[in-house]
Amino acid sequence: MFQLFTDTDTDITPQEAKEYGYKLISMPYSIKGDDTVYPYEDFETFDSKAFYDTLRNGALPTTYGLSPKKYAEYFEPTLKEGKDILYVHFSSVMSGTFNAMELAWQELSAKYPERKLYRVDTKGITILSYNIVMEIGELAKKGASAEEIIEWAKTEVDKFAVYFYADDLKFFARSGRVGGLASVMGGLIGIRPIICMNEKGVMDSIAKARGRKGATDKLLEYVRALQEDIKGHRVIIGHSDALDLAKELEQMLKNEYGEDLNTKIVVVNPTAGSHCGPNTVGICFHAIHR
Fold first, then answer.
1. Chain-centre distance of CA 208, in angstroms?
2. Domain 158-286 is of which CATH architecture?
3. What is the mean pLDDT of residues 238-260?
C-alpha cells in the first residue's frame, strides 16, 4: 500500500489533491525581503492577482528549500500508518531541497526499514509537473501499483513537453535558471524568449519572438510539430495573472484541434511565479519528445 505525495510547485489545488489521493508538500517563499515566510499550504487564500501585482510594483520574492526536519514531518505520519510513499515532484536539478529530502529519508528508512520511497521526477515545474501529477493520479485511482507507476514514468515523463514565454526577462535573469537566456537579453524591446524544459529537467531558451502575438504563434508551432495524441491527454495552459492571454491561446488550440480538446487553464503558483514574473504564458501537451 502506498500514499501519493506531490508539492505545491506542481500547481495542484487542495481539491485536486484530495480527489486524486495526494498529500501536499509546501514549497515556501517570502515576498517582504525579510524573515516572513509564506508556506503556501492553503491555495484557498492565495490571491494570485495581488501577488503578481506586487511583483509588477517591484517586489522580488525569495524562494526556499525545505529542511530535512520538515520533510520528516511530512513523511513520518504516513510511514507510521504502514504505507510506502510515492512522491511525484518538480525537477530535482532545479533545487537543493531534494538533498534535504534524501537526508530525511536516510534517517526515516533506518527507523522504518520495511517502508519504501518511490520517486517520480517530472523534470519540470508548474504546468508540466501538473500534467504528469494528474496522469499518475488517474493511474492510482484505477488501481495501479507503485511499481507500475514507476514503469509508466520511465517512458512517459519525457513525452510531456512545455513551452512558454515571459513578458519581463528580469525575473528569469535574476533566477539564473534558464540556459541560453543571455542571447536574447540586452534591452531588446518587445523580444520574448521561448523557453522549454529539456529532458534533463532544465529550462532552456530555445527561440525568440517579437511581441505577444509572435510568441503565441511560436508556441503553436511547437504544438503542431511535436504533439502526439493531443486529444488523448490533457492540454494545460498556464499563466501568471494573464488570463485573457491564456484564454486566447486556448481558443486558438480549439480552433485548430476541435472544441472537444481537453484543455485546462491554471495559474502559476507563487514559488514558480517568483522566478518567471507576471504575464508569463505557457502550454503543456503530450508530445513525441520534449
1. 22
2. 2-Layer Sandwich (3.30)
3. 98
